[in-house]
């Protein structure tokens, strides 16, 4: 295993080539059940960038569809750091569920892109997760 890691080191570890300028995020009249999310790139994205962005959005949708973005059930993040974490399954099962309803295909033209979303529930954590992931991609 060490030999494989040594051979693949250059593919795994690489210097950042992204922008040092923070990503600008603007929210205008966002409707959780019917909205487009727009992206404006500095330049037309390369095929590998489009693939990475699509994979990120697909992962975001899957986590949301499985109920992973429910801010009403954040038990472990609320635990004190100096104690052993505990999880109450009954409490977790009794919170109102959140689920990502539907998502369209990413549409790209030149340096603009958009994707239609129906998040369904008014859960801002969904958007925070997407923005955090895209901010990291932008800086990479």
UniProtKB/TrEMBL annotation:
Domain of life, per lineage: Eukaryota
InterPro entries listed in its UniProt record: DUF3531
Family annotation (Pfam families): DUF3531
PANTHER family according to UniProt: OS02G0827600 PROTEIN, OXIDOREDUCTASE_TRANSITION METAL ION-BINDING PROTEIN (DUF3531)
Protein name in the entry: Ribonuclease P component 3
Organism: Olea europaea subsp. europaea
Lineage of origin: Eukaryota, Viridiplantae, Streptophyta, Embryophyta, Tracheophyta
């Amino acid at each position: 295993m060490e030999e494989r890691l040594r051979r693949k080191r250059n593919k795994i570890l690489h210097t950042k080539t992204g922008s040092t300028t923070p990503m600008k995020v603007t929210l205008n009249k966002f409707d959780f059940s019917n909205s487009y999310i727009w992206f404006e790139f500095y330049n037309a994205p390369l095929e590998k960038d489009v693939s990475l962005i699509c994979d990120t959005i697909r992962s975001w949708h899957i986590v949301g569809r499985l109920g992973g973005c429910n801010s009403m059930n954040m038990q472990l993040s609320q635990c004190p750091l100096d104690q052993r974490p505990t999880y109450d399954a009954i409490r977790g099962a009794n919170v109102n569920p959140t689920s990502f309803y539907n998502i369209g295909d990413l549409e790209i033209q030149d340096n603009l892109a958009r994707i239609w979303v129906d998040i369904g529930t008014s859960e801002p954590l969904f958007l925070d997760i997407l923005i955090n992931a895209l901010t990291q991609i932008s800086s990479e």
